[in-house]
Amino acid sequence: MKIWKLKKGHDSRLRARHPWIFSNELFDSPKSIKPGEAVELQDYNGHFLARGYGNPHSLIAFRAMTFDSKVNNPTSVEFVISALWKAWVYRDRCGFKKSFRLCFSEVDSLPGIIIDRYVILKNNIEYQVFSYQLLTAGMDTVFRTNLQWQIILRELVKISCDQQISAIDWEHTLVLEKNDVNIRKLEGLQVEKPQVLKTIDDEDLTQVEIVIQNVLQADNLITFQVNLIDGQKTGFFLDQTFNMRLLLEQFSSQRARFKNKKVRILDLCCYMGQWSSQIVNNLKLWGIEAEVHLVDVSELALQKASLNLQNYRDEKYQLEVFTYKKDVLEFASLFEDEKKTFDIVISDPPAFVKNKKDIHQGLHAYFKLNSQAFSVCASGALVVSCTCSGGVPLEDFKESLRKAVLRSGKEARCVTFGSQGWDHPTQMSFPEGYYLKMVMHQMS
Question: pLDDT for 23-60, tens place per residue?
């Protein structure tokens, strides 16, 4: 294994368990290795610090996978399987039994890979899809050399069945590789089209029904019609479960107000309707009728979201769903004539801030979107405002919301804060993993 040393005085961050080392911090030249090759990192005096992998083509030249000197080869198949199994056990103990984020890169000792596990239903039989993205040269090498993805995932599935965490075996497992993200270019990797590496009966992953747990009642399952091939990220977003639960718990305490009244829901940037579906699923259980208004710039998203909400309409529950193909920064004009107001407003846009130079413009976009959101609220309404921009500090986001409330001309109280779900954990030593912020207000 190649050994690199750090420049004198550049080891404090790594000793604090931050997993990244930049090329200008290295005493040695990173050009001595192949991209993704295993590396041991030592301090200036030759003392062990970490093992992981390096990349001479990346600004982040070294990514740590272990700080344990007893782990000799963290890029081995055996280490990766062990790390993934530990990640699955953690999610299982947090209550995730169906679809969830299985591996969250650095937090799970596997920097450079995201794996989501989707449970799908076909003819009342459960299958699972492992949909993953290889974001760095290290993970690209580990998973794609000699088709090691197959060895890793097959063994992981076997262990999960043997340990009775899952009952879905390899014969009922599909694998999707989605290396269609531009961040791969920073590692000297190609952006590729999604590839189905393992299928069953030529299953069409552009139209599958995935199973999600109800965020309040885990045994009550919710199904979504989704397109895993063309959908964003690994095909679907799973990171809002904690925030959905916070909203529903807050609404539950005041649901008596809606005993004989429909709840009007406005879902901005609705994507495939997961916020609205979770809300309506629980409203139906509580015997409360709803009217849902979906806004998104994507016609595909609106079609899927509307289809997913139809699951709750029957003879006893007459759910109304309206869709609007519209830029959410200009959505308020949709309701000006009717002066329609809403009891629950969800503002969950894509990241307006991609990098530091976008911060000012992005914060203004959050201000503009949320000022409209507050302006269409009924008395006592709950407003959920989210940002998935990792580069936006919570305090700056809160300041944009303060201005938005003032611009709306209404009054609101901040009732709680949220973050990404427990299957997307963070580490205090790696703040870059904390990206999703949620602020909930209740209108006066």
Answer: 999 998 888 899 999 999 999 999 999 999 999 999 99
Which amino acid type is present at position 216?
Answer: L
Q: Output the DSSP codes for 286-350.
A: TT--EEEEEEES-HHHHHHHHHHHGGG--SS---EEEEEE--GGGGGGGGTTTT--EEEEEE-PP
Q: Which of 349, 306, 342, 312 lies closest to 324 in space, CA to CA? A: 306
Structure-token pair, residue 82:
């062990």
Element (H, E) at 137: helix 137-144
Distance CA 13, CA 44 (A): 14
Backbone angles phi, psi at 294, to 5 degrees: -105, 130
d(CA 387, CA 396): 11
Q: How far apart are CA 129 and CA 176, in angstroms?
A: 7
The model's pLDDT over 271-299, given as tens digits with 9 standing for 90+, comes to 999 999 999 999 999 999 999 999 999 99
